[in-house]
């Protein structure tokens, strides 16, 4: 990695699988038990808020039962010692990257541990438990929702992500099926900017074609071997 200065790392549900968190599209994946349009769209939240809250409450409760795995720990160690620019962009809403110690981190699809006020847009730590009457500490409205980027909503910090991708010398994708945009398009942005591209995944993804190199295997083995 001697000619590499700036690194962007994209992670998906696969990096947390070995910690015990379900992925979306694999066997007994989250989308097996729920239709996306019933739990992960603004319309679903308006139509059946109790179902959407239950879907995210169940996943938030699971966070107390799991720990970061060697893949999260390896990325946090790389983040701590890498002298150049480094950005971990996660599609995941769990807190395993930060619990492993990662600092240069963006949650582009939101976070289970955060609540968003649908009235004023203010985010705050999730008030466990969340009785329906819980009011926003900013505007006082009882309009808290999961701080999750639903389908059809703009992911967070896209400008900062795009800037990092255009400056990257190396783009690494870990544990994602490449099924969801705009994240699935990041490899193309990085390639156009001249970055080397590497995919680490349990199986070829929808975007494998765009990567110079794909390594197949579990993240807990591939990531420590990389860093
Ligand atoms: C938007 C919420 C626009 C959090 C999620 C083209 C461009 C832009 C948008 C679109 C486009 N085409 C279509 C769209 C719309 C849509 C989209 O992409 N649809 C898809 C289905 C075609 N995108 C959007 O709506 C996005 N918004 O574009 O807004 C806009 C513009 C202006 C103004 C307003 C709006 C929003 C997308 C975010 C949606 N939210 N989730 C949550 O509930 O968790 S997406 C959901 O899928 C999760 O966030 C998840 O992160 C994401 C991707 O899934 P993966 O992480 O990849 O997980 P998956 O299970 O699929 O795969 C796991 C992989 O790991 C597998 O490959 C497996 O083999 C591997 N694996 C398993 N175990 C291991 C492993 N690998 C290594 N080791 C292991 N042990």
Automatic annotation (TrEMBL):
What's the chief localization of this chain? cytoplasm
Q: List, separated by semicolons, the cofactors it needs.
A: Zn(2+)
Keywords from UniProt, A to Z, are:
Acyltransferase, Cytoplasm, Metal-binding, NAD, Transferase, Zinc
Subcellular location as annotated? Cytoplasm
Task: Tell me which residues bind NAD(+).
Answer: 12-31, 91-94, 175-177, 201-203, 219
Q: Which domain of life is it from?
A: Bacteria
Residues in domain Deacetylase sirtuin-type? 1-227
Report if keyword Nucleus is assigned: no
Enzyme Commission (EC) number: 2.3.1.286
Q: Which reaction does it catalyse?
A: N(6)-acetyl-L-lysyl-[protein] + NAD(+) + H2O = 2''-O-acetyl-ADP-D-ribose + nicotinamide + L-lysyl-[protein]; N(6)-succinyl-L-lysyl-[protein] + NAD(+) + H2O = 2''-O-succinyl-ADP-D-ribose + nicotinamide + L-lysyl-[protein]
UniProt-annotated catalytic positions: 109
What InterPro entries does UniProt report for this protein, alphabetically? DHS-like_NAD/FAD-binding_dom (IPR029035), NAD-dep_sirtuin_deacylases (IPR050134), Sirtuin (IPR003000), Sirtuin_cat_small_dom_sf (IPR026591), Sirtuin_class_III (IPR027546), Ssirtuin_cat_dom (IPR026590)
**Binding positions for Zn(2+) per the UniProt entry:** 117, 120, 136, 139
According to the UniProt entry, its GO molecular function terms are: NAD-dependent protein lysine deacetylase activity
Recite the UniProt cofactor note for this protein: Binds 1 zinc ion per subunit.
Q: Which residues bind substrate?
A: 56, 59
Hey, which family's this protein in?
Belongs to the sirtuin family. Class III subfamily.
Domains (record comment)? 2 residues (Tyr-56 and Arg-59) present in a large hydrophobic pocket are probably involved in substrate specificity. They are important for desuccinylation activity, but dispensable for deacetylation activity.
Give the protein's biological function: NAD-dependent lysine deacetylase and desuccinylase that specifically removes acetyl and succinyl groups on target proteins. Modulates the activities of several proteins which are inactive in their acylated form.
User: What's this protein's name?
Assistant: NAD-dependent protein deacylase
């Amino acid at each position: 990695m001697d000619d590499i200065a700036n690194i962007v790392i994209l992670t998906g549900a696969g990096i947390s699988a070995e910690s015990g968190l379900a992925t979306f599209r694999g066997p007994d994946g989250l989308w097996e038990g729920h239709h996306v349009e019933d739990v992960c769209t603004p319309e679903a939240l308006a139509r059946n808020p109790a179902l959407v809250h239950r879907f995210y409450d169940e996943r938030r409760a699971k966070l107390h039962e799991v720990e970061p795995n060697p893949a999260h720990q390896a990325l946090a160690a790389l983040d701590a010692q890498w002298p150049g620019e480094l950005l971990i962009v996660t599609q995941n809403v769990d807190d395993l990257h930060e619990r492993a110690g990662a600092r240069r981190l963006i949650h582009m699809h939101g976070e289970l541990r955060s609540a968003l006020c649908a009235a004023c847009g203010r985010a705050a730590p999730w008030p466990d438990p969340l009785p329906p009457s819980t009011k926003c500490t900013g505007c006082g409205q009882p309009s808290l929702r999961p701080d999750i980027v639903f389908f059809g909503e703009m992911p967070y910090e896209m400008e900062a992500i795009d800037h990092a991708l255009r400056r990257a010398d190396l783009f690494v994708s870990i544990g994602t099926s490449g099924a969801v945009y705009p994240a699935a398009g990041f490899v193309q942005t990085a390639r156009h900017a001249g970055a080397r591209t590497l995919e680490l995944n349990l199986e070829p993804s929808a975007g494998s074609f765009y990567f110079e190199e794909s390594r197949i295997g579990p993240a807990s083995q591939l990531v420590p071997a990389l860093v």
